[in-house]
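Human: My hope is that you can spare some time for a protein that puzzles me. I am handing you a single protein, as its sequence and its fold in token form. Could you go through the record with me and say what the backbone is doing? Take your time, and here it is.
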Amino acid sequence: MWELATVALGAYLLGSIPSGYLLGLLYRVDVREEGSGNIGATNVARTVGTSAGLATLAIDLAKGATPVLMVDVLDHLTGADPTRELRARAVAALAAVGGHVFPIALGFRGGKGVATTFGALLALAPAVAGCAAVLFALALTATRTVSISSIVAAAGAPVASLVLGMPSIVTATSTALALLILVRHRDNVARLRSGTEPRVGASNDD
């Protein structure tokens, strides 16, 4: 049990690094007070600039993938047992995203977890992540709305896991992450209903 606790703590701490917030400070911008108030790549790109947004995206992806990949390197924690290793990888994925969404440094008020989730899934189950990426791209092309695309991709991940015959722990993990992302997008859903959710390319894009 201590092995999983170690993995979870390390993944949480890495995921808790508020990359978007820190990059914003380099430009003397508190992204929590601008745009949507989110510390994720979309809001950083809008309020600070495209370069900062892309850097945030890259770091957030790495925050999700790195802890999962580290489990492979530190295989002594799992005793080279495939089942225990997969369990540890799933815990790392969940903890990393949890750290991003609930970072201790920002009073547990973080981002929505989309990029970090994709990074985690990319390391945990590349095929599932690939399906989610395709769904995101298709939805973004059709709607030009990042929030809708994120929701579609998140909801599609556990379905893809089932269709692809992934281990049950992968499906369970992708389901938990999808539910978290859906909850974190409740404000976006409210704006979608009111017709005020910005689109990509609009001057007030969210």
In short: The chain has one domain: 2-194. Residues 2-194 form one domain. The CA atoms of residues 38 and 111 lie 6 Å apart.
